Amino acid sequence: MQTWSLVSLCVLIGLVVRWGVSLNSYSGAGKTPMFGDYEAQRHWQEVTYNLPVQEWYFNTTKNDLNYWGLDYPPLTAYHSLICAFVAKTINPEWVDLHESRGYESPAHKLFMRATVLVADLLIYIPAVVLYCLYLTEGSSKKKVSTLLCFLLYPGLILVDYGHFQYNGVSLGFALWGVLALGLGWDALGSVAFCLALNYKQMELYHALPFFCYLLGKSVKLGLMGRGLFLLVRIALTVLVTFALCWLPFLSDPGQAMQVVRRIFPVARGLFEDKVANTWCSLNVLMKIRSILSSDSQMYLSFACTLLAVLPSCIRLLTKPTFWQFKLALANSSLAFFLFSYQVHEKSILLAALPACLLLNDLPLMAIWFLHASTFSMLPLFLKDGLLVPFVVTSLGFLYFSIYLLSALERCSEEELRLGAYHKLLFCLPKLDLAWIVKWKFYVSVSVMAGLSIAAVALAPPPHLPDLFPVLVSIASFSHFLGTFIYFNIVQFSEPPSRKSQKKNN
Amino acid sequence: MAAADSSWFPALSLGVSLFKCLFISAYHSTDFEVHRNWLAITHSLPLDRWYHENSSEWTLDYPPLFAWFELALSQGARLLHPPMLLLSNLNYSSPEAVLYQRLTVICTDLLFLYAARECCRCVQEQKGSRDVLNRPSFVLAVLLLWNFGLLIVDHIHFQYNGFLFGVLLLSVAKHMQSLHLQGALLFAVLLNLKHIFLYVAPAYGVYLLRSYCFTQDNSDGSVRWRSFSFLRLAALGGIVLSVCFLSFGPFILMGQLPQVLSRLFPFKRGLCHAYWAPNVWALYNGLDKTLTLLGVPPPVTLLCTVLSILPALVSLWRRPRSAQSFLRCLLLCSLGSFLFGWHVHEKAVLLAILPLSLLAVQNREDAGIFLLLSTTGHYSLFPLLFTCAELPIKVLLMLMFTLYAFSALRHLHRGPLLRPLETLYLVGLLLLSLCCDVLFPLSPWGARLPFLPLLATSLYCSLGIIYCFLRLYCSMLGGAERPKQP
After folding, report:
1. Which residues cross the membrane (chain B) (predicted)?
2. How far is residue B411 CA from its own chain's centroid?
């Protein structure tokens, strides 16, 4: 069958899965008084439509910042404004100032879900298709398999179409950035990434690799000639893009400062709720939040994040290839997730995107990490009533990615780049690392399945009401830490020789 | 792709089963309440009340074997969620009840998966190693397992067609493997599960008589009268009668047979179902709106049906024995009954589309007819899902199936399959759907004539289906036995 028809079929399957998930409940459904992320997005449509730009980020009588105040950069606000225009033509009650608070109806849900699908269709899905067709290696069947697995990644589908968010837009823009850099269009790639940054500030997790890659590339081209020219061009495009996005707020420095204050709230603590990162897991053993002052918590997390992200970025600076760039994206986002300040469990999606980019090259590890990332958000999905879609999409993704990408067959030591581990574990006797990895995979999947069943079927003991979310986050944390170490080791080892790569395809 | 030769079938099956689970929270029609009510009836009431119970409007109108099937399902419901089994709980649809019933449909579909695998085994493969995606058995598996009509009707609208078509396809597969007694047993069971399959009983009758009771043919292919085997006829009769006795027996003994039959064959309903299945009577009713024509009583429809399938039955009798001719005759019987039957539901078009898939992967001409019939027939199912939330699903699924059918069959048979007029018809179908679903509701006539899109759809589709019927007839009567693929 021709590639274009297979690609269309994959996209159609991806769309049906997304819409099927969207038939279920959303975050905060029916939960007065604050509801959830769905109501937040609806409220932003209300605010951006009814109030002038100058009042969007300020606490006024008409705009109560305590009720889901805008805390994303301007592009999110513009997107909400566009959606609000459409909402107004269909049913003005949906965006009435103040009266539409907590508005819930089947028609409104249909509209909101449709906005997510349209945004995905315009931004995220084309980027995925182009990435898989032009920047992955292998036969066209392999590319189509990678495309299907990429589109079926459950974490993004469940958060965007279940819980309700617009991560597809920011991740889509970031992916366009990666795509452009991979094809050598650096200025366009910078524009795309700036758009991503201006949509969600969490894209800063990906900022260092973009910066180091472009800087490294410029240095390689020679800082006295083409390199400098490239650097200047990129700097100019970045500045222009930022200026255009922030245009309404640049007239008054107070405006810009308020926006920055809203999108970087440093008054909150080291972490909130249960999240699978170092601080929350450490908190189980010793109560960090009470031992250290809030300032020292900030400095500690800053120092640890910097230490964790530095090796990968310096390696990228010295070797600015696309392969190193992909790995650096994964390492940087994981480092930030594990050690940064005020991390939310949904931020794992920022690490999941680079892992999807690596589906073709390191299938088993990428699939393992992606599965763990979806599992780490299980408590969130249970709260939102998304158990059935969670089970169906996770099982489907796990089975089909392993089957289509032959993950368990392409499992030799060479393919898994485990050579460096031998050097590190030189003191231990020679082990069959590939066999160990496979068995660790099976055990880990069983543990995740067992924990999922326990979290659903069993009631926690009364003196430990948060037992299952904590267990889930600790298990996920160990997976993420292991993946972080693995990707770092792979980034520092030599790429496999051309001959062995050709054999695997 | 994985190198394993036979692992694609479990992968396709698991994929489609997980896919079906995504529609658990989708819209379900009153058929959901029908089956919940039947679970309640069979569970809570004694046998003698099953066909008399009418406190709900959804009375039991399937044969007794299906009632036993519902009784078996009700045992699971008793363990998991008893409130759904209360007769008084009309229109009860708690999340647990929906989950349980949806899962029963998905699980009973396992029989359909098994039957599809048996059919794939009967398909002849081309020699030489081929890419998995290009094999006739793979294409047939996708066309059967991922059939748009079944997904929409069973897993959203809510019915148990997958399970029933599984029995039918299994019976056909058995006949293709020359295991005629098993095939007959399965068909007898099927008739006692849902009597709509009486539509294709003549094909079975003629075929079994011709190819099983008469054991040999003459050299010119006609039947050898001397080779009649009473033993075989007795075996067949015994099987059919014992199945019917198992199913209807208790009711005959209680003297309730007339009541049961009146429930099974309610002729008080109208000539056309509410949504106007795209058949000849839809065209007749359409003409009736402009010219005043005579009303059509049920015996006339029966006569028309019999006349329409008679040539096919005669042709089956006169040809040499072959399972392919039998399948063709079965198709013509189902299409003939669809076109001329009384109170036909548009879901009945699946009775023609699914068996035609078996022929489509092996024969170029049949593939062309399949593309036309499946697209038209599937499009005529659109009015079943009228809610806004399900609109993207039905459009996307239709696109998926049609895209796959066209590209896979074109690739399999190497070249275009449709004649220019047929392509024009399908383009017209697309324009019709745009007009009916997008332009018409927004136009000024949208509120005044809400039934116009349904009328237009069913008239246009009936033209296509009648055309397919005639083409299938030509290929059955005109062509000699097709040479087997090398």
Report:
1. 7-28, 99-116, 137-158, 184-209, 230-253, 291-314, 326-345, 391-412, 424-445, 451-474
2. 26
